Amino acid sequence: MPPGNYRTSTTGYYDRYAAEFCENTFTVDVSGLYIPFLREIPEGGAILDAGCGSGRDSLAFLRRGYRVVSIDASREMVAAATKHTGQQTLLMTFDEIDFTDEFDGIWACGSLLHVARHDLHSVFSRFSRALKPNGVIYLSFKYGDTERMEEERFFNDMNEAVLGLFLVGHPELKLVNLWITEDLRNYARGRQNVLNALVRRNVMADGSDGTAPQ
User: Are 138 and 107 in contact (CB under 8 A)?
Assistant: First the structure.
């Protein structure tokens, strides 16, 4: 079980090391990851960059003509993303997401991996409600099957089996694609694999999507 203060500790890490984190991530080329996600997004569509960090991906989507809402739980990352993108990033945790049928896609690159498993179901439900019918979510996790602390940061590692179990609890979400890549950052601690997934808000034959009424 993660410590009770894992969110505060993790957010505090990004507040303290925002400049270093941006330096290490902003110029990393992840354009290959955009391809399966953006082919599902209509031209000029709306994207929620959930846990946007430095704003690297938000900026890439903006430059491609998409409408982007960027959010992050760290004040310092919000400031950095606002500077990099030229538009206001929202200071918002996943638990504060309250959009309904608003986005064609949600980009959660390296962000949900900081959410403990006992909190992840509610986040998935909020993401589902924020999507338009047939909208998609891109998710990525460090590859593994454990929950752990790495210094001040909490990590929820996922593999195919663990993610599959979570999706069973969300019939409104259908797995579209699942693939493994190597972390594109050059870490001194060695290579790490990443689990990538694309899921769709599933619209059923009766027009519902399996989400609970609000």
Answer: yes
Question: b/e for 159-191, b at 16 or more Cβ within 10 A?
Answer: beebbeeeeeebebbbebeeeeeebeeeeeeee
Q: Over the stretch 34-85, which tens digit does the pLDDT of each residue have?
A: 999 999 999 999 999 999 999 999 999 999 999 999 999 999 999 999 999 9
pLDDT tens string 125-169: 999 999 999 999 999 999 999 999 999 999 999 999 999 999 999
Please give the single-letter amino acid code of residue 106. I
Domains along the sequence of the chain with CATH: 6-201 (3.40.50.150)
The string of DSSP letters for 91-118 reads: E--GGG----S-EEEEEESSSGGGS-HH
pTM, full prediction = 0.92
